[in-house]
Design a protein that fits this description.
single chain, 106 residues, alpha+beta, 26% helix, 22% strand, KTSC domain-containing protein
Length: 106
């Protein structure tokens, strides 16, 4: 079973102490660049909160710290499902619809 998408939320920036709000359940996540709406990351996962927390954001310096100026302004949303199999099926349908739309728009 698939729930509805959450509202878009600002992705926490390094060093600001922001919190990530996501369910600890299987589902789909989408991360986009806030200014342009360009897709940054998308996935069907076992644990939405963990996947978003581990998302590689920005580049690291030689000393292991991220340069805050390299981190794009991101937004994310989630859609919880009852299982990872449901999440994968929903993600595949979304990808298929997007490809169909893009081939018709080109």
């Amino acid at each position: 079973m698939i729930s509805t998408w959450s509202e878009w939320k600002r992705y926490p920036r390094p060093g600001r102490g922001d919190n990530l709000e996501a369910p600890i359940s299987p589902g789909i996540y989408e991360v986009r660049v806030a200014g342009s709406g360009a897709l940054y990351s998308f996935g069907a996962v076992d644990n939405l909160a963990q996947a978003l927390a581990l998302l590689p954001v920005g580049s690291k310096s030689w000393f292991g710290r991220r340069n805050p100026s390299d981190v794009p302004d991101l937004e994310y949303r989630t859609c919880a499902t009852s299982s990872k199999a449901d999440a994968k099926a929903a993600a595949e349908r979304m990808i298929g619809r997007r490809e169909t739309y893009m081939s018709g728009a080109a």
